[in-house]
Amino acid sequence: MQEPKAALALVEVTRQDITEVLDRSRDRGALTAAHATFRILRPLFAFGVGNGMHGIENSVCFMMKVRGKPGACRRYLSPAEIKDLWEALDHSGRMHWSTAASLKLLLLTGQRCEQVAEMPLDEIKGEWWCLPPERTKIAVPQRMYLVPMALEVLRLDEPRKWAFPQKKNPAKSIAYNTMTQAARRLSDGEDTTFDKKRWEHPPFTPRDLRRTVSTHMQELGIDDRIIDAVQHHVAKGVRDNYNQYRFDREKREAILLWEARLKDILASEYDAEGRAISGPLAEEEAIGLPT
Questions:
Q1: Which CATH superfamily is domain 79-278 in?
Q2: Fewer beta carbons below 10 Å: N end or C end of the chain?
Q3: Are 130 and 141 in contact (CB under 8 A)?
Q4: CA dist 182 → 67, 87, 101, 172, 209 (Å)
């Protein structure tokens, strides 16, 4: 995918320019944003044509459609997929360690992709990741407990400014699109492990990893309100406007439960259909516990 072009006059914009913009959104898992962008562009160019403005004589959006239907995303990774992904990140043939580690931290914490990618190490206070309001979507501080596996992924014994520095310029952090491109290469089979094993599951995006965390937390029986607190969703209702309790204790308990489940997932073996055939998850199935 090409880098975004410099600003163009409206009369200079081509159908290919529009397609590239929409495809970039779609490829990073933001299909709804692609449709929203097109809903703005189409009447914009139609207005220009109809009113003879900016030298626009024809709408480049005429007969165009966004590829893919908008709607709620439901993709999340199964236990077998999680294990294959973790092993791929451990043994990738071309992925830089910081990119692989960022995807692991995303799976361990369930936080937003941009917050993980651009994480400075000075946000870590002991066992807590403390995001200031300017780094959160809802402009409210967030505290996320870092489980031992997360602290190991972060390599805190290596002095640096950014948790996940760029390979070519360590003075800067990776960007969200770095994670997206890595996930796409892995999904498309462009990136293989050192033993040449390829990804044999449906494609995924970094956003799907965040959804994976919330889905498995639900399966563990964690209350939706606590999952929302973990993932820093907007609180709804008058009561929530006045209730400033941030559920630190409950978030810590929830993320520790998820870490324990992740360890069980990684310690299990799966057949070609993704069923656990040995290890902790297989033992749960044998005694009738949900997995």
A1: Intergrase catalytic core (1.10.443.10)
A2: N
A3: yes
A4: 22, 15, 12, 18, 13
Q: Which CATH architecture has domain 9-71?
A: Orthogonal Bundle (1.10)
Residue ranges of the domains in the chain?
Answer: 9-71, 79-278
Query: Which residues face 120 on adjacent strands?
Result: 162
Across the beta sheet with 124-125, the strand order is 124-125, 128-131, 142-145
Cα–Cα distances (Å) from 94 to 98, 99, 190, in that order, read: 12, 10, 9
Q: Do residues 172 and 162 lie in contact, with contact meaning Cβ atoms separated by under 8 Å? A: yes
Q: Per residue of the chain (291 residues), give pLDDT as tens.
A: 444 455 677 778 888 888 888 877 776 666 777 778 888 888 877 887 777 777 777 887 877 877 766 555 689 999 999 999 999 999 987 899 999 999 999 999 999 999 999 999 999 999 999 999 999 988 889 999 999 999 999 999 999 999 999 999 999 999 999 999 999 999 888 877 656 677 889 999 999 999 999 999 999 999 999 999 999 987 654 345 445 567 999 999 999 999 999 999 999 999 999 999 999 999 998 876 665
